[in-house]
Design a protein that fits this description.
Chain lengths: 113, 119
Amino acid sequence: DIVMTQSPDSLAVSLGERATINCKSSQSVLYSSNNKNYLAWYQQKPGQPPKLLISWASTRESGVPDRFSGSGSGTDFTLTISSLQAEDVAVYYCHQYYSTLFTFGPGTKVDIK
Amino acid sequence: QVQLQESGPGLVRPSETLSLTCTVSGGSVDSYNYYWSWIRQPPGKGLEWIGSIYNSGSTKYNPSLRSRITISKNTSKNQFSLKLSSVTAAETAVYYCASVLYPGAFDIWGQGTMVTVSS
């Protein structure tokens, strides 16, 4: 299995400030034949299912605000919220789909400072 | 737009079989290149992929659960189902169904159904 880790476990950021979440995979999720990273980010608010924010490591889904951005390649990835808004309070998960034995990171909780 | 809805008992006795169904609307369980999946989340914890069934009917299961899982689909009802045998209290969780247009991430999720394993 590809093991996903995330850091930090939680963070508190002031409104309007930047939030950065890191994700690491135990093996590369970069598929050499198409040069794509099989890595996604989800946002989950209490009582709701996860919402897909970013796929292919850096492609925002339709309707996702541009303050959310993804970066990284291979085994190391980052989700950045450039200017934290109150509605961004949630748990964020990374997920690899390079292997069809799908795995998720443990999650990072984002709160307002 | 595909929509998913889970259904099934909210309470299951320990050692018995958990059975859930996901009804697909706005699409077909036989749609080419779709993976139909089950994911669970214990209260206050993270997400665990349980398994998936491809439009062809082939399946992939989480190795840690493989011996106890069956995922199947019913084309006539446009549904796919999960059976998890010999459940324990630790498997109390919200169970989600989700879809993947392969290759890709889980882009469509059901609202989830809470299943409690208790006597």
